[in-house]
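Researcher: Structure for this, please.
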Amino acid sequence: MTIRVLLVDDQPLLRSGFRALLDGEDDIEVVAEAADGARGLALAREHLPDVALVDIQMPVMDGIEATRRIAADPSLAGVRVVILTNYGLDEHVLHALRAGAAGFLVKDIEPEDFLHAVRVAARGDALLAPSITRRLIERYVAEPPLPDARTALAGLTNRERQAVALVARGMSNDEIADRMVISALTAKTHVNRAMAKLHARDRAQLVVLAYESGLVSPRGL
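Model: Predicted structure, token format:
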């Protein structure tokens, strides 16, 4: 199956570089490009890509607002937004993850890692490697849990809470299954049910909720 990609970045040179790299793969196709978030949103609705690679800082509509609108549109439920950034993990990226982004990539990423990330996003996994997870933890170390986030987790079963905590540690479904001594299918079911109860678009939002609620503590890792 061909992965359909939308590029949204206000720098033409970067877009052309990303496009050349993606179009060189047999299983990836760039279906459209946009230079601002508003145009990107319109093209997402028109083309229904599997993955939207979205810059944060753009004219007309920034990447965070574009991400929020994509995530809120039921007709775009199959679109995975991956944020492109020059700066790594910062406040803008955290806002984008809360808005519904499936993950983020730094623009100076190695080509092979970039292509792998697009494929990971297309199959519905969050782009939150262990190194990124650690930086997220560092970001929340000094902050108390948010009451709203803690309340949201109250509706989960003990097994679902355990699965969410393991997702927040950067584990895959197979790794969660090994840790919980259950099948991979059961692990996936626990994660999916938690996402449905918490109205989380994907695993990235589960990670943010786990930190914000205090379910995962840095001392416990």
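Researcher: Any notable elements?
Model: The mean pLDDT is 83. The longest strand covers residues 28-34.
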